[in-house]
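note to self: dont lose this again. the chain is below, predicted strucutre after it. 190 aa total, dont forget to put it in the shared folder this time
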Amino acid sequence: MELKNRNLNVPIAIISIVIPVVVAILFYLPHPGIEAGFDIRILPLFHAILNSATAVLLAASLYFIKNQYKKAHKIANLIAVVLSIVFLLSYVTYHFLAPKTMFGDMNHDLVLDAAEKAAVGSVRYVYYFILLTHIVLAAIIIPFVLFTLLRAFQGDWPKHRKIAKITWPMWFYVAVTGVIVYIMISPYYV
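---
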């Protein structure tokens, strides 16, 4: 498929809006009570592993391009995109099927009582700050990744480099904070 002269701005815009909207709606849907056929409790760890691998690939990608290993740079980024797609599909599946989890909710009643608040203390604010920035940037990063990828496939290197300088730090932050969020909330999973 020839991407050089194709204007994919509208499809990228649609994808960039649909994905965050679907994920947001997912959090307001009632728990369906459907069994997955496997223990879905392994998925958060799987997500952390995917995020870790993505962060490593992004760091490698930066190293590769700074050292002119263009093919390795391309491969690292394409694998990072694939891992991000796998993450998104698995994440949506998990949050559709799993009961809600709340940071600090030791008894899993989805109410953070005074004792639970005291137990987690101010770490709760650190967690919510990291989570909020992670979520916002995870939504914002979608068009950046897609446009960066498109510019590379089009061979528009000046635009690719310009947008990659914005995309890389955001994407790396999202990948790393995804792992941090997992580590912080994992004690509260059912």
